[in-house]
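User: I've been trying to design a sequence by hand for this structure and keep getting stuck. Would you show me what you'd pick, starting by listing the structure so we're on the same page?

Assistant: Good idea, let's start from the same input. This is the structure you sent:
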């Protein structure tokens, strides 16, 4: 039971590490134009989400063909789920911010 918890925690930690914003630990901040700007950050996060989803699909196909273990499938599907939830949360925040700006009196 402890091994399952440890592997699940490791999967979430790996997913969280994969979603870190470039330049967030120092240096450039998101929202600036040019290299390392908001558009680059969004593109990077979406690209990693697509890669995570593809890895999940490969693991699932591997499990079907008998070359991947159930553990690999669960880990990769969990990572893909976390990535997708992050992208959806960012999308909702961006849409909310846009709607709030549109309601501002001019």
């Amino acid at each position: 039971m402890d091994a399952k918890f440890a592997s699940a925690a490791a999967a979430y930690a790996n997913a969280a590490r994969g979603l870190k914003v470039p330049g967030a630990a120092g240096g450039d901040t998101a929202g600036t134009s040019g290299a390392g700007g908001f558009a680059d950050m969004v593109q990077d996060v979406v690209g990693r989400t697509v890669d995570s989803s593809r890895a999940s699909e490969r693991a699932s196909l591997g499990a079907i063909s008998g070359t991947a273990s159930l553990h690999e499938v669960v880990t990769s599907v969990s990572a893909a789920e976390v990535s997708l939830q992050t992208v959806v949360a960012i999308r909702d925040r961006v849409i909310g911010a846009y709607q709030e700006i549109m309601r501002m009196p001019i």
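That's my pick for every position. To get oriented when you compare it with your attempt: Residues 56 and 74 are 9 Å apart (CA to CA). The chain has a mean pLDDT of 79.
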